[in-house]
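Duplicate of #3305? Posting structure anyway:
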């Protein structure tokens, strides 16, 4: 088994003929079975959009603490808003993460409100990128479906109003710290949802531990997104796909990244797709909402 993280051009998945879409789906499927991580190029997201998103992230995290605290998750609730430095601990056995974050949820009727910083054009920029990620996520799910042997649009009606979070991350470098206590950038963890689409500003730090292997670097590749499978899709694929532990080392310099976590609709039924002859479902069916609640409760003792 190889433990490389492949780079996959998804141009033909997005706009190719059926055979071409199937070929890309096979490459993605192979990565999902082996490392659970892959890079994508040919994703159609404009470099100028990415520059805009990173500029906006810089502007947000540069705001005075009092302004950031005014839009804090602890005030806003529902996993939206600002999370201060040292609040989170992704690896509960390690020190708190050396990062601050800002969470944005889907904007729609009936959804909890987001908090927005008072920065011109900021909201529009983030919502534009949110939409681009959702479209990309839909393309990736067509590939998962083709590879798992169900109809190409299998996931479409399970992602009509998905539980999705766009998360800006700012990792603080050690030299900006008075003490160097060995805290990680982000502790080792797996992601909960179906797929995560990650953009990194070029500073290294992300590492991946394939099951049965050692930590390997996932270097930042300019213009490419890093995608990884989360626990929900692992369950949905009846453990054919793997969600892989990853972490961010204490970065050598300041580091910014933007993660888009895509989970299914709260009422979608996550029922294992059994593709291997002779296999039986490893899990009972569960709704996307109940699954996420279970996971959050296990981690935080409560669901938000
Ligand atoms: O910032 C990164 O490179 C990874 C972040 C991550 O894994 C997460 O927030 O779940
Ligand atoms: Fe992660």
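Output from current build:
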């Amino acid at each position: 088994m190889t433990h490389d993280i492949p780079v996959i051009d998804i141009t033909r998945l997005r706009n190719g003929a059926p055979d071409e879409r199937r070929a890309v789906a096979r490459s993605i499927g192979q990565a999902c079975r082996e490392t659970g991580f892959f890079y994508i190029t040919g994703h159609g997201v404009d470099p100028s959009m990415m520059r805009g998103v990173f500029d906006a992230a810089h502007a947000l995290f540069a705001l005075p603490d009092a302004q950031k605290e005014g839009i804090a998750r602890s005030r806003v609730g529902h996993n939206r808003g600002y999370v201060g430095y040292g609040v989170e601990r992704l690896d509960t056995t390690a020190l708190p993460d050396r990062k601050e974050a800002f969470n944005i949820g889907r904007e729609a009727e009936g959804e909890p409100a987001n908090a927005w910083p008072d920065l011109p054009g900021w909201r529009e920029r983030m919502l534009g990128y949110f939409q681009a990620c959702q479209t990309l996520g839909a393309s990736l799910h067509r590939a998962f479906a083709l590879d798992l042997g169900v109809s190409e649009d299998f996931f479409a009606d399970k992602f009509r109003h998905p539980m999705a979070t766009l998360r800006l991350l700012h990792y603080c470098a050690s030299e900006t710290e008075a003490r160097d206590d060995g805290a990680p950038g982000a502790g080792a963890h797996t992601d909960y949802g179906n797929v995560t689409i990650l953009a990194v500003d070029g500073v290294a730090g992300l590492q991946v531990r394939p099951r049965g292997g050692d930590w390997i670097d996932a270097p930042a590749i300019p213009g490419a997104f890093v995608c990884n499978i989360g626990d929900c899709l692992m369950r949905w694929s009846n453990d054919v796909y793997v969600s892989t532990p990853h972490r961010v080392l204490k970065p050598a310099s300041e580091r910014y990244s933007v993660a888009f976590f895509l989970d299914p609709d709260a009422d979608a039924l996550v029922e294992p797709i059994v593709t291997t002859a002779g296999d039986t479902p490893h899990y009972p069916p569960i709704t996307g909402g109940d699954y996420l609640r279970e996971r959050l409760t296990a981690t935080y003792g409560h669901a938000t």
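Confirmed duplicate; merging threads. The longest helix spans residues 122-148. The pocket of fe (ii) ion (ligand 2) is lined by residues 189, 191, 196, 246 (CB under 6 Å).
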